[in-house]
Structure formats: structure tokens, C-alpha cells
Batch of 2 targets.
Target 1
Amino acid sequence: METNPKVCCSACWHTPEKPCPELIECLLNGSKCHDAHAHSESVESRLARLRRDEVDHMVVYVGAGTCGLGAGARKTIRALRSWLARHGVEAEIVEVGCIGLCSAEPLVDIQLPGRTRVAFASITEEKVAPLMDAIAAGRIPHEMVLGQHRNPKQSPWETVPYLDEHPFFAPQKRWVLTNCGLIDPNRIDEYIARGGYRALSNTLKANTPAEVCNIVEQAGLRGRGGGGFPTGKKWKIALNTASDQKYLVCNADEGDPGAFMDRAVIEGDPHRLLEGMAIAAYAIGATKAYVYIRAEYPLAIERLKRAIQEAQQYGLLGYNILDSGFDLEINIKQGAGAFVCGEETALIHSIEGKRGMPRPRPPFPAVRGLFEKPTVINNVETLANLPALLGNGAEWFSAVGTETSKGTKVFALSGKVSRTGLVEVAMGTTLRQVVMEIGGGIPNGKRFKAVQIGGPSGGCIPEQHLDTRIDYESLKTVGAMMGSGGLVVMDEDTCMVDVAKFFMEFIQRESCGKCIPCREGTLRMLEILKRITRGRRSEKGNEALERFMGVLYMTRLAEVIKDTSLCGLGQTAPNPVLSTLRWFRDEYEAHVYERRCPAGVCTELRTFEIEPDLCEGCGLCVSKCPTAAIVGLPRRIHYIVADKCIGCGSCADVCPSHAVKLAEEEPAAATVAEKAESGAVRSIFAPDVFEGWHEGKSLLRMDDDQ
Amino acid sequence: MTVSAETKRSGATESAKTVTITVNGRSVEARQGEMLLTALKRAGIRVPTLCHLENLFPSGACRMCVVEVDGFANLVPSCACPVTEGMSVKTHSPRALRARKTILELVLANHPDDCLYCVRNDNCELRALAAELGVRQRRYVGERRQQKEDLSSPALVRDPEKCILCGKCVRVCEEVQGVGAINFVGRGSATRIAVAFDEGINLSSCIYCGQCIMVCPTGALREQSHIKEVMDALKNPEKFVVVQHAPSVSVTIGEEFGLKPGADVEGLLVAALRELGFDRVFDTAFAADLTVMEEASELVHRIKTGGKLPMMTSCSPGWIKYVEEFYPDFIENLSTCKSPQQMLGAIIKNYFAEKQNIAPEKIFSVAVMPCTAKKFECGRMEMLHEGIPDVDAVLTTRELVRVLRMRGMDFKSLTPQVADTPFGDRSTAGKLFGATGGVMEAAVRTAHYLLTGTDLPDLKVEAVRGMTGVKQARLHIEGKDIGIAVVSGLGNASRLLDEIRAGRNDLHFIEVMTCPGGCIAGGGQPHSTNLNAVKERMQALYRIDREGTIRTAHGNPAIKRIYQEFLGEPLSEKSHHLLHTHYHKRDVLV
Amino acid sequence: MTDVETTQEKTTVVDRILTEYPQGKRDALIPILQEVQAQQGYLSREAIVKIGKHLGLAASKIYGVATFYNQFRFQPLGKFHIQVCRGTACHVKNSTAVLDTLRRELKIEPGETTRDGLFSLEVVACVGACGLAPVICVNGEFYASMTPAKTRRLIEEIRERAEEHGN
């Protein structure tokens, strides 16, 4: 092991006061400043060891990101240790980040000396012994195999498919995620051995800050946090604003429900982020940087802290980095949980110790930001793109992508899709490829309904637009937006009104509460959606009329919220409603007019029935029913009183004989009215609606302004 | 005496460069960098606002002032949009009007709608906007928030259901007054304005200045009303009801009855109060003269005997509470004089009661004040004499207007009357108490007399006049060099105290008024109060002083008489017993 | 332990944390609150008032900041702190049913603690384990692909374990 990490070998004469400008080159190609090589091993063998091209005993890699740990990786590791101890096998266990295929967690890779590394899927603790027994017997258990890594320096396993041919990985272009799940995130040497920090080292030597800004602008890199503002342009504003102190802030406050890209990058390859930050800080002239990261990501924080420490030891952060005269101090600020802090000015307030409420812009943060100083705020993925961008040049970067959107984009694919996880694709890839090929389509033979992209600011894209190409502009044409990268797939069992309601519920809670259109408007929209999904049994007085009025004014309300809100959160808040309204109007109509939820999700609109032939009269349902809506004598057939039933489904959950069923279809409104006339049902739908008409209020007239 | 002023002014940041912008098709001159709203206002174009506060950084919260600006995709809030050359603006386009109306409807969606019963029904900004924008029905129906009124404090009442979260109260409390008793709490649609831990105001550091009431656009904040107590006393034949009115009230109240700002209606006010049935009408300015006598003597005494300096005035009860809570180390610096209201209260229930042979407990003493903190002050333990309060009830100017309207009084057509003796005769120095710098000016006049035996050649002390928040000057009297400072707004006071804490020692006497501009802009004044009206009121006080015959406290014959007949001399034992008090450190609970 | 002793103990914890932030700048506020909560499990009134004095901030400011962020609690946690993820992926996979089950089983609402102090319930923004939706988290440990039935079993298990421990 290296004695003094700031030098390439013990013969090196550099000191912390006079750091070596060529450290990275020396580590990769041998010393440049002196001949004597005091390493016990050659540079090549050292690199081969660090890249694990050559291993002298078995190496077991376990995906130990948050997702892996959630799936039981900790128990898997314990089982592995005990198996190794029991069998007296010497092996190294390496905890790596997430390779991206969350649905196959816990992932275990095994590499035997001289052979390629093989990945095995879903190795929960009980599968450890069968797997290891097979390996010990020199056999690859094919039923567990995901694929083998390609490495020309090692001999491959025959009959084992390559990982890069796996349908999940094949269509991907992994620039940001290239190291995730492969390297030990806790070792800077492994990152350097794979070419890490070379881009920073070369940039500091070869480029002025203004040149770096130009390269990034030419490459066409745009903010990956959602807005898509050209990164180089933003930098230039900050670079050209004179100030004694400037700040770089890395926004890792991934608050989008349904997104976990940033976490995976930090957990799997933290040095890529740090290198990107160093490049960005150099480009804008910042000497202090913050990583604003969610406190809910303890593992990412721990890895990041360690990475910062290591980089400081190597002189890649701190004072006079690689003798370039450039200093950078990176601090971690833990976000305390507020979605709105993804907004730049809110994030600044939060770092300053205030309520995360956005302020009007101008002045823009690049002119006056954190502590009133010029501040550039970039998202994790944007920054993690920089090492490869600077390393390969603007042309290389802009060769991939579409006219307006260059490079790749990382998505967190989740929901009703066979393979969930982290996906990185070239801009311009279609959504269909991502959902159907990479994600493997919809499981359980269900039909695809929509894919939600962009989180609470984005929209739901239906089947007919699944061939939309992923870029900032195309997504807008179908009422969605890039957002930070959550992709949630929905199938026929998802109710789109319920999805819209879910997002409004989220937004009205996560709004900072400052400006009226966002604070009050999103609550009003939620109330309108709640009225639509409320069963008529619980409607009183004028509420049916209000339900109609709400729908009538919803679009207008949405437009005003978009047009007048203070920050991006409010300006995009109505998108989930507008996009579902646009593509799934029939579902809204079924809720409003027919009072039924086609997907059977909105509980209040559901009605349950007990099938008399199956009911055994056990009475379990009676004890669980929260509204005492079920009647029946013991050991006799039970009945559900429709007017009392709130559709919660508790009865269906507990029924041992599966006698409780969702009633096929709600009777149509007309039928209800007829029944009401004949006195067959008590709760009546139609008359309430007509109350308004009697007063001479035409629904149309009510939207008139004057 | 010579006076050298060291007025501090904050530098304006806008450049003087003018630009031309197009508003609704016509050219308008504006200053480069100023906010669009300011330029529009100057051009006579009214764009409604709910959260805008003059001279503070725009918060951009209410979005009522949105306008269409060419080149911007979204509507732009004019309060936070810097003017640039060639900008083209539409202020009342259909799109802007629709947005404003919708935003207002959103606020109204869950409003209590009890306008008929609301204290602000005649001057609610929300109601006025609803009329202006033609809101005719509740199109967005919002669930009502059930929140309790906070009746815990002796001076203020908060009704959170009527709060529209414009945040002006929070900003005034923190940025202008430096108190921060209330803040935004919670987030999203659950955001509310509250005291720490959602406690009552009485447990907070609130100093009851009422500036929050002055900026509140709705009925969410109001004073704790004493109207009922006063009316009950007036109809009780057992009670002898006396009233005093503060110096600033007479130059303010006329505005509410159609007179132009700055009209002095002292005679009408006295007539109106008498018409209401008060047995005696006294002038607080008389007690202000008394305060000057005591306070100037105390200052001279402190200077001569090496007492605690700088001495600080104690007329403003919000300021007293502020020192008790935030700067207890300065309590010794406070003058021991009670405020004029409390001095007169004490004199009425002792000297007057004795003279008129009325039992003190039969007297009901009312004060008409521009102030909400006075309601708190009159109930302080220090202000009780053997369990009887010096002052029983305080009506703000606003409340008095309500009472007068209730009685159907045609204020303007009353015949002016003069206040009752012996406490109706005042000097114009006492009258100056109504504006920032007034106490100082009056005290300087008398201190000069006490030190030299002669009056100032020119009684007007220009250096302490005007609206500026911090005014400083040096007086040279008989070879003595005296440093004075006049501060209004507690944020300004706090900065000065911090300087003194840090070692500044060139000041001898400091006047502090809680409200920016002094009592003429007090928290109990009419809601129509604006900067222009405040300036007019101030000029009215200066006019009264200029035209007055008795212009010094020590020259007031009524003052001379009370010392001869009752008190003896300033700082006498009787004075100490009735007119002075001591304050103590106060722990803020939340 | 008496109440007085508890208060004193808390006081010293807060004091110790505050000594780590000697300059008392405003931007230290959130880290201090996080640290105090990490040590005490919640933010007590005494702690908030003390922090306010240290930083020269009104208690209302600190309360305003603390109530703005999801992380901060003003009640002690239960012995088992259950967090239910409310991310999109979890919602689509019916996390509402899981939350309803917990509500019914524990008879508390999110943000509350059961009277026996055994459970506290919290609804959290996406925990970023969307691939495993729906997830809940008990004392930091993830439970993936939850259903109402699995949830009920988990609660029963914890109760049994707690009882064994108690005996």
C-alpha cells in the first residue's frame, strides 16, 4: 500500500506544500518526475489489481446500495461469511453500489481467479448456500445467473450469457453509471485506476475557467435536475460576476417521489461526483462547495463523507489542488426533508438555516445566491457527467443525443414493470424502448396504461405516445417534462384520477406555502379531485353541484396556477392533472358522470358484493368492517348493505373463502335516477345536480367573468 | 446653545438614470432598476397588492400585482420586477385580470365570510378587491380551516381563519420591529402564522405595538376592544368617567370623518367626547408636560450626579417591554418616569379625586390612545395603586371612531370646545409628543431652562424633527457637550443598543418610540394610515407648536400650579410615589 | 428516574451539541436541530428555546424552520418507529392499503405515537427504494413489497417480541 497518498511512490519528492501536478498521470503511467521506482509492484500489475483484472482468490461482490440492503443484502453477506468460514474458503467480499437492476436484488457477483465475473440475481440468504455449493463444485448454477461481465483479460464461462447482452443492459448507454455496481465506492484507488480524476487533472493544466465553460456549453450539456437550462451558460453568468467569494452547490435533494438516481450515483461512484464538482467549481471560480443531500440517504452521506476525506488525502480536494493554485472545500449539508428545496432559491435559504421558501428572481443565484454571493447550483447527474465530458471533449459528448438534448439521461424505472431499477439511455431513445425492452413490459399479463415521467412536475404519457423520444422538448409536446428522472409505469389497474389526486396531495403538502396560487390553488385542485372520487353516499347538500363546478373550473384554475406561481414547483404543479385530463378524459368522465372508477381503485366508488354460493357465514368480514355494513347470522349467508359500504375492501382482504367480490359495474346515473323515482334507493344523484338549474344558473354561464 | 446634527440616512441604491417603458401603450418614465410597481404607482396606474410593504425587500407572495410583460412567458409580479429600458407592460389585460380574480377567489374559497360581523368590514382590503374584480359567487369551494381565535393577550386578538398569509405582520414584526414574535409555521396548505409552539400571544415576546394590525389587509388582527367596558361605565350612574386623549389623536381622527390628513380637530374631539357623556375631558399633553418636567430633571440629575447614562425615554410601552425582554441590561438606563397616560391616570385618581372628593374606586378613567400597547400598560402590576389601576380602559383612535359612529355623531358640525381644567391646559411642547423627536425636543427646551435658567433663543430643534428612523445630534449647553439620539422603530433601536453594548459612550439621552414615526403612526391609528398621512400629521403638530403661545412645559401655568399645590417640585417624594416606577427583566417563555 | 433528572440530562445533551457550534451562525441552525433530534429523538421546547438563545434567534423563527421540514418531530418516538413511503411507485403499488392497515392496527395517525410508547407512525417522502415498492421502514430496516397481510404479520411479530422482552 502507498505510504503517502499525495505522491505516486516513496521515491517521489513532492510534499503537501508542493503537491505534484502530475499525480494522476504518475499513478496511471509511472512516475514522470523521477526515475527510481520504489513500488514493490509494477504500475501495470498494480492497476490490474485495482481494476480486478487479476485476482488471486475468489472475490464476491455484493450490491449493497440502499436497494440491495432493502432486499436483504446484509443478511446475504452474513450468510456468505458463515459459508466461507464453514468451508474454509478464502475469499474477499466487496460491497459495491447498485448496478441498477433493483428487481434482481440482492445481486451477488462472483469472480474466480482467471475467470470472468458472473452476476447472480436475487441471492437472498437462503440461496447463498446452494449458490456457493455449486461454485465450490466448479459449476455455475444457471437458474440464478444474470450474466457474466465482459473482460478480454479473463477467460469467459461458456454457456453463460454476457451481461451487456441482457435485455436490461443492452439498450443502455452507461456514462454516468459506468462504475456503479462494479467498483468499491469506498476506494479512491479503484476510481483512479479506471481513469478517474484524469479529466480534472488535465483540465486544471490545460484550460482556463472560461474555456471550461465554453467546452461545456459547446457540448450542449443541460441541467439534469429538470429545467434543462444550459449548464455552460449558467456557469458563465457566475464566472463573469465579480465577487470575493463564489459557491458551487450540488443539489442532491432528490425529493421526487419515484426517483433515486442521485442516491445510486453517490452510493455507487461518489468520486465521479466529486471530480465533477471540482471541475465545475474551477470553471466558475468557486472555492467553497456544498452538497445538499437528503438526510434520508444515510448510506450515501456516509460514502460521500469518506470519499471527500480520501480525495483530500490525495490532494484532489483542499488547498492548491495538484499544484494548480485552485482550492476547493466541499461541505455536506443534510436536507431536512422538503421537496421544494429542489428549487434553487429555496435550497439557498435552507442552507442558510431558514425556511425553504423561494424568493422572486431576479436576482438569479448565479448573480446573488448563497450568503448573497454568486452561486451555481447543479444537480448530481449534471456534475457526474463532467468527468467524461471533459475527458473526451465536447464533440464526443454532443455526438450522442438529439438536436437539442445531448448525452444520456438516467432514469429510475419503477412501478408496474417487470424489471425495475436504474437505467441510463442516450437522449432520443423512445419511451417504448425503456418500458418495453429495458423494463421488460408489464408483468402478470396486464395491459400498459401510462408512464409517469418527471414526478410532480411532469405528466402521464399514454400508449399512443409511447414512441415519443426522450428529450427536453419532445416530452413537453405531450404534456410531460424531463424532470429529474423518475419513470413510473402504470397498468390497467391504475386509476389516473387517483394518480392525479396523489400528486396534488403531494404538492399541496410540499408547497412552501408562500404564494397564493400554489398554496391555495393546489389545495383547491385536490379538493376538486377528492369530490370526484367521493362516493355519492357521503355527498351532502350542494356537494354534487360543487363537484360539477369544480371540474368546470379546473382547467382555468390550472392555467392561472401555472401562469402566476412564484417558483417552478407551482408553475408545474398542475401538470399531472392537466396531462391526465388530456389523455385520460374518459376516466374522469366515468368518475364524474357515471360515478365509477374503471380501474376499481377509488374505494368510495367501489361496491362489494358477497357471492352467496361461496359465503360460509364465518363472520370474519363483519368483525373487520369499519362501518358495520355487513349483516348476517352466524353460519348463514351474509350481505353487504350498499348504502353503508365505503368500499374499503377490508372484508375482501379477510374472507377465507374469497366470497367477497367487487361489484362488476356501478349502475349508470340514469338507472340511479330511475331507481330514485321508484323509491328503490335512498341516495339519489340526479336531483342535487338539478338544484343549480332551478336557480337559473347555467353551467356555461358560470365560467363567464362578467 | 448650539446643535450639530448627525442625521444618518440610508443610501438609495437605485441609479438616477431614467428609462422609458411602455405601459398599456403609453410611454412612462421610470428609474433604471427600480421595481415596476413603483414606476406604475408614480405614473398613476394602480395595480392591486396584498403583500407589498413599502421600503422592504419584495416578498412576491400574493401574486396580485402580476402584469403581462413582453418577452416573459409567465405573468410577472410587478413588485419584484426591475424596470429595464424599452420594457413593454400590460397591467390590466384580460389575462392579468383573470389571474388576479382567480387568485382572489382562491383566497376567498375558505374565508369565513362573516363580513357583516367583521371588525374590518368598512375597510377590508380583501372585500374592496372582491368588489373591484367583480367576484359575484364562490366558484371554488374550499374546506374551512377550523382555527381558534387567540384572545390570550391584553392588547391584540388574532383570528387565524381570516388570515390570508400575506406575511406582512411577520415581516413588520421581524424586519421593522426586530421582535419576531410570530412566524410562518408549517408548510404547504397547512402553513399558518403562529407564535412558537402554537402558543398564545401572551406567552410570546410580542410587545403589543400593533404594527401588525396596521399592515393586516383583513380582520385577522385587531385590538382587544375596550368599547364595551367604556360604554358600560358611561351608562353607570355610580361611575365618574373621565377621559384623556393623546397628543396624536386630534391630528388624526379628522381623517376618518372626511377631513384632510393633518387637520387638527382638538376642539371637535373634546366636544365629541363630552357629547358621549364623559364627566371630564382631559388632555394627555398636560401629562406630557409633567413628564417633561420630571424627565428633564431626572436627566439633569443623572448628568450632575453621575447617574446611569445614556438615559432613555419611557413613554412608549412597547419599547419598555422590548427592553425588559431583549435588553434587560439597559433597564437601569430607562427613565423612571411613567408614561404621560399613566401619570395623568395617577394624578386623576389621587390629586383630582382628593380635590373633587370622589372615591378613587368610583372613578373610571379612560384613555384615548393611538396605541395598542397602552392597553397592556394600563394593566401592568407597576401601574396599580392599592389594587386600583391608574387607568381603567384604553380606546384606540380606531375604537373611538367606532364609538362616535355608533352614536351617530356628525363630527364635523360639532361646536369646538375646550378641555376641562385643571388637566386640559397644555403647552405645545407636550403636544409634540405625538411625533418622533417630540419628547426630545420638549425635554431639550426644559433641560436648557433647568441648566441655564433661560429659554432657548429658538425653541425649534430641527435636528430631531422629521421621519428619519435614527436622528442624532450634539448639544452644547453652557460648555456641556450632550449627545442625543432619537429613534423610532425598534429595529433601529436595537441596532443603536448593540452599538452601546459594544462600547459606544458618547450619548446622554435617547428618545425611543416603538412605532416608526412615533405615535402619529401608532398601532392604534386608523387603517387608512399611510406614509403621506403620517407626514401631514407630523406637520400639523409642528404647526400647532409654531402657532402656540405656551411652548415649554415649564412655562405651562397648569404645571406650575400642580407643583405648587400638590407635588412640590420635580423628583419630589410625591412625584416618586405617583409618577415614577421601576421595570424588571422579563423572561420570554417561548 | 424522576422528571427533573430527565430534564437536566436533556439540557446537558443540548449544551454539549451547542458547544460544537461556538460562532452561533444562522446557517448552523438546521445541523444543530438535526443533531439534537438524533440524540433525543425529538425537539423539546427547552431545546428550541436554548438553541434560540445560543444563535440569537427568536423561538418563533426556530419553530418556523423546524415545522417547515419533514424531518423534525416534537414528540418522542415510539420504541418501533414505522415509516411508510409515500412515493409514486409505492402509491401505484397500493401503499395506501398498507398505511390504512397500520392506522387501523395501531390506532394512531401519522406523526403520533401509541400510548404504550411502542409504535410511532410516520409517512415519509420517497425513500428511494422504488424498485422494491411498496416499502416500509421499521427503525431503519426496510421491508419490501408490503401488503396489508404482511403488514399485520409484522406488527404482530413486533408485539410478540416486545412482550417477550418485557417479560
Target 2
Amino acid sequence: MADERIGKAVILAAGNGSHLRPFSNYVPKPFLPYADKPIMYHHIKSLAEAGIKEIVVVTRRDEDNNGSFKLQNEYLKNLSKDPELKDINIEIAYQTEDPITKKPKGTADAILAAEDQLKGQNYIVILGDLIIESENGNNYLKEIIRRFNGRPMFSADSVKKDDAKKGGFVRGKKLDDMLIEMEEAIEKPDDYILDSAKSVDDRYNVMWGGVYILNKDSIKYLKEVGKGKDNELNITDAMSLQCKKENKKAYGLLIDSKIYKCRDFGRIEHWIDNNLEKQNLEKFKSSLKFYSKEFRDLVYKYVQENYNIDLL
Amino acid sequence: MEEMLILLKPDGMVRRYAGARALKSIVELGVNINFFQILKPKKEFLADRHYAEHKGKFFYDNLVNFMSATELAVIIASGDNVVEKVRTLLGKTMCEKADPLSIRGRYGTTKGINLVHASDSNETAEKEVKLWKEIINIEEKDYKKDIMAYIRTYENFPMIDSVRYREISKDLSEGKVSKEEAEKTINELLTKETDFEEETVNKLPALITENILLG
């Protein structure tokens, strides 16, 4: 009988945030403000609601990437004082960077930075640049944890062909409305592959949403995996490798768009759009006060120039 | 309506992501795209015609050699105040002085290695468009569709943080790394974000370091 308990979560917050320059010169992507709090806080809150009490955040040293991690690291060290998170234990792990690119080596390598804390357990992985939101007490993390049966899992979405071509296409059969049994994951599939998937409604399942559950055997595959897309060591490749070696499947859980809203923070315009929504705007304005003056001024200027909105 | 010339320079070509993002921002200005093609002009055309006014200046040889290193994306755009709009979007010519939110501020490497050439005044625009029309062949077709297809192909390409190129540029000009070391690193970085052949990519590092050291 597989051990289906998930004791820990790991939040990956050690990237350069290259797509978010110049904002990421001051703040790492998962630490950008979303509504009233840093993006990362929303993840921690959501994990707490899903019953996870042990969280490891993978970050970088204060001096890395223009010193942009300093604020995040300080915040993390003080987070245990937050009354809303009083039962939550937050640990910090540091990922190192490649000497040439001055970038960390990918998501698989980031998890290994927290190896000591994760060893021998099942754990849920959260990538810092997406938030899956819901209302009425629904919680996607809770749902994926509930479905975990000892095999690796990942969040997924059903998208149009053009979007599927850009992502990690998941070939496999659907076990129910939401669950996909993965045969194979193909990065950036071409027309031939997608056409042979014979989708009736022109929808294709891709890995999306930035949530993974890895089991206690995963560490060895994270170490073994070779460089994949973008020359990085990726979680998805490690997961595929594990399935192949063990000759067992991984499972994707679709994010039901009727219940959940997936917010992407991977590009400047997405991050700003999310914050300018009516219900978030005032919260966003006040959360900016927490950040440095240079950062704030840059946000004011960007929003003024591109949206013609004065945040001051 | 005013027309202007925009060129994606070799660094904008090889650095696929940065180039695609620059073109995307230009298209999003709502300008008309009257011409778009990837082509490699003759070196003499660049040296004797396009850059004729710079002949004899200290950066001339480097500029011509750099611009002839790879094929270029050639664009003719039109619209009201198109020159001013595009130049504001791109930011100052020297990347170090460009607004951090501008294209060159976000993706430029250093000095003249600044991704894009754009006519710098209405007068130049008229002159450049006239000149380039001598070597291009404008057809009756939807060039916007072509440029969008180019953008879609490369906007999700792997990218190297532009900050990295700027750090090397700074280290080199401050003498913290040797020219050879800088070239080796630049080569490694470029290789990671391109699908250009090794042979073409190999030409760029020396031209980039030369530009940095021109002072």
C-alpha cells in the first residue's frame, strides 16, 4: 500500500524573473504584489487551507540577482509572526546559480536545494508564478491532495491547439471529467502529434498551473534527470523519467474553469492586469507601500504610460 | 502618411526572444506594417549607402561589420507620428541611458548593441525608406500577417537575461575580465538563446566586445 500522506510543500521562488525586467531587478517574481499581499503569501495561505503545515520556500542568497532577494528573505524570516499563519512552519532553502548565466539551473535543481527537508516524504510543489483562485471554499490544492494515490501528479488545463503547441502536451486517457492518466508528456508538440491526438473539440491537455505532487522516490530522479527544455533541469522531465523507469503512470488533474481561475504572473502585462481588476485595485495600491521607492515609482510610471491610470 | 525604416539588428535576430518582443511592442503601437522581410543586404550597401554619413567615424567599421554579420529583419512602418512613437518605445540609442521600461532598457546589451535600428527623424525616415526601396521588392500582400507569424515563432523562445550581457559589458569596460573571457561568455549565452548556426553566432562576440571597448 502506497503512503498517500502529504506532509510538506515546497514553493519555488528562486528564479531570475527575466521576463519581468526591470521590475525583477528589485523583487523576485513570486514576491511581486498581488492585491494586498506578495504572490507567495497567497500560496502559503492556500496551502494552509489545504492542511499543509510544513512549507519550505526555495529562495536565493541576498546578494544574488542585483540583491533583489533581500526583501523576500527578510519577509520569510519574519513570516512566522503573522497571526494568520501561526500554526505554519516555514523553512528557507537556498538555490545556487550557474556561474555563466547567473541563473539557477531549473525547477528540478530548485527542489533539490530543499532535499534535506523533503527526503523520504511525499510533497506538493508550487511554482511561484501562477495562482489558482477559487471562491466558495473550493481549493484546488486540497482537491489534488485528496486525489493523490502515491503516483506523481500535476495540474493541467485543456487549451486550444495554438496554445498547446507552446506547452507540455499530455498524451493519455481521461479517467473521469478531470483526471488524465499520462502516457507521455511532449514539450512543444507539432501539428502532426496534436492531429493524431484526435481531439473532437479542438482542446488539448497541457501541463499548466504550476502545481505538482511528487512522491518519496522522486528525489533520485530529480538528481538523475538531464538537461531539457531551455537547457534547464525540469520537474516535468524528472517526472517522465520516473514513470518510464518504474513503468507506472503519472496523473494530471484538470483545473475546472467553472470552479477555478488560473492567474498567470509570467509577464509584466499579466501581473499588472491582474492587479488592476476592480476588486484588487485599492488593495494593490496599498500593498505597494511595502516595497522600495524605486520599485513603486517604476510601477506608477508603467501603469501611467500603458494604461493611462494614475495610481498615486 | 509618414513612413519609417526599422531594422532588427544581428543581436535582435540571434537573440530570438528579445527580437520578437521588440517587434511585438512595435506592432502593438498600432502602426501599419507596409513591408516585412528577413534579408541580408550586401555589405557595400550598408557601408556606402545606409551608413554613408558615418564614414570615417571611430565606430564606422565596427558598425558595418556588425550589421553585416547576419540577415536582418527589414520593416517599413507608417502612421501618424510613427517616428516619434517608435523612438519613444525603443528608448535612447545608448542602452545604458535608455528608460528601463523601454525596449532597449529591457533587452539591450550595451551602447550600439541595441537590438533595433529605427529612423531617428522624419527627414532621415524619408531618406532611409527611399534608399531601402531600391533593394527591396514590396508586394501586394498582408505584411502584418508575416510579422505576426515571426513574432509567434520566437516570442516563447528560451531567453538569457539581458542583465547578464550588461554585466559582462560592464566588467569588460572596467577591465575586470579580459576580452577573450568576455567573448567566451557572450558566445555561451548567445548559443543558449538561439537557433542560428554556430558559424553565424561565432561572428558576434568579437564584434560586440569591440563595440564595448570603443569607448
